[in-house]
Amino acid sequence: MTQSSLTARRKPVFFVLEVILLVMALLYLFPVIYLFAASMKKSAEFYEPLKLPHWYFGNYAKVFEQTHLFQALGNTLYICLVTLAINILVSSMAGYIIGRNQHRYFQLLFYVFLSGMIIPIQTSMVPLFKLQQILHMQSSLTYLCLLYVAGGIPYGTMVYTGFIKSVPRELEESASIDGAGRFRTFWLIIFPLLLPATGTILVTTVFWYWNDFISPLLYLDINHTPTLITLIFKFKVDRGVDWGPIFSICVLATLPLIVLFLFTQKYLIKGFVAGAVKG
């Protein structure tokens, strides 16, 4: 049987698979589509879920008029950017050193980092709240950033350690022959090659910071220092069952994450599989 005949026989199978995957994609997209459609409905239309919206933008106007949306967005962006910068800085250097050294002390250090991932956050809420009072950092965004840094470094170190094992050592040896020091070699040669791992950490941790509800609720005053998630919670409490504006504020809080994922999804996939076949 020739190659062309095999390809011709497989075409119907490929077509069926494509249809199945298309249907599955639409099923996954349905909640997002419904979220956007519901944000355009008037209150009376919510009891007809399959009815198409009339592109009513009054719900969005209520959100901008009745909430401090830009303040909450600014607080959330501050938390994400500061925490990501520190996490990537510390985790990349720690992962580089641990991944390049096979000595048992460095392996022990790696397990020390990983131990930070197995401690449930619920067990440390009360001590951390007490610590916040002792440090006089009530409702401080900086304090919340420090908590996120402590929780994110173990995960970031694990990702970078696995990825660095797939980077050839010959690059560092060549840089060393040219007179580059360890620090310069890392930032000018190795770190740019860690872009997939950095993209993975960026996407996964931003989703965590952006959607976290418990930590901002415990350590911040949601009336004066809201994040987007606590703002949605407060807005829902104030609005009751007025679903139109509630869906609208959810759309506004979701859009940045969708845009971020669309631009970084290839790095997310590469980062997850990197280091799986080497090391």
UniProtKB/TrEMBL annotation:
SUPFAM superfamilies: MetI-like. It is a multi-pass membrane protein. Residues 73-264 form the ABC transmembrane type-1 domain. The chain crosses the membrane at residues 12-37, 76-96, 108-129, 141-164, 185-210, 243-263. The lineage of its organism: Bacteria, Bacillati, Bacillota, Bacilli, Bacillales. PANTHER family: ABC TRANSPORTER PERMEASE PROTEIN MG189-RELATED-RELATED, LACTOSE TRANSPORT SYSTEM PERMEASE PROTEIN LACG. It comes from the Bacteria. Belongs to the binding-protein-dependent transport system permease family. The keyword Transmembrane applies. Pfam families: BPD_transp_1. Keywords: Cell membrane, Membrane, Transmembrane, Transmembrane helix, Transport. This is Melibiose/raffinose/stachyose import permease protein MelC. It is found in: Cell membrane.
